[in-house]
Amino acid sequence: MEYQDYYKVLGVSKGATDKEIKHAYRKLAREFHPDVNPDNKQAEERFKAINEAYEVLSDSSKRQKYDQLGSDWFRWQQSGGNPNDFDWTQWAGRQPGGGQRYTTFEDLTDLFGGGQSGGFSDFFGQIFGGGPAGGGGRPRRRVRVDEFDRIPQRGRDRTQEIEVSLQEAYQGTTRLLSKDGRQLRVKIPPGARTGTKVRFSGEGNPGRMGGQAGDLYLQVKVRDDPRFERQGDDLHCSVEVDMYTALLGGKAAVSTFGGKLMLTIKPGTQNGRVFRLRDKGMPKLRQEDQHGDLYVKVDVRLPEQLTPRQRELLQEMRQEGK
Fold it and tell me: What is the separation of C-alpha 71 from the centre of its chain, rounded to a whole number of angstroms?
């Protein structure tokens, strides 16, 4: 028999509150309700799994028993036990207390009917016995999808992309957005990267039946910069150095977002050598006093044309180097 991860089905953590579980259930049940997805077997199976998960996690005694079972199950797996050899019999039986529980609009079990578990999985029937009411009890009614519409619902969140340059991401910047005749000033924090989200509470889609509005999330996209390659909070670039500086040593100017600095090139520096400049990279998001590093790769440039004297000197150098 296959173990059912009810927390994963609802997309909540094991420490989720009753409110969080109910919120996740309502959202998923509405999305996969058969009235919304007619003749869609995959949605129907998903809906059944969602309903079963809520049946267990919304009931404190069932949830407690399920959590104890889950701990044993995961220990069994971690010890290398074969899932097919796990002893389910010690967990078989009806819900502790033997009482019946009747839910309100969330109770959608009878939508599928059939079998002592009312369309629930073998796992549920084995662990909790005869279905969501503990066996018997009053008939269940099918809940129509429009019944969800009469319950206050929070508005959907909205996501909008906003594009900034790498230098703006380094310094931090602002944008002005127009929404419903109003202007929203968006502050992009220093260190923002592609995927960073800025949240505006209550600026998403309006709620229904008095529910609160959703939130607006502005998702940052940082444009590529021809001078730098970003890797996390570190920056990578290259600096051109002529043959003579690479051989004899000298200085090379390196551009950074904080201004130019002079990099010391040691005599005999090889092409491709990388210098690390500490704290010259991107500021860390929401930790502006901390920065990544800047890695500078030396690109040695050879002269394309040589004078006769230069060629003569190089020939002498080659002879002495043998």
Answer: 26
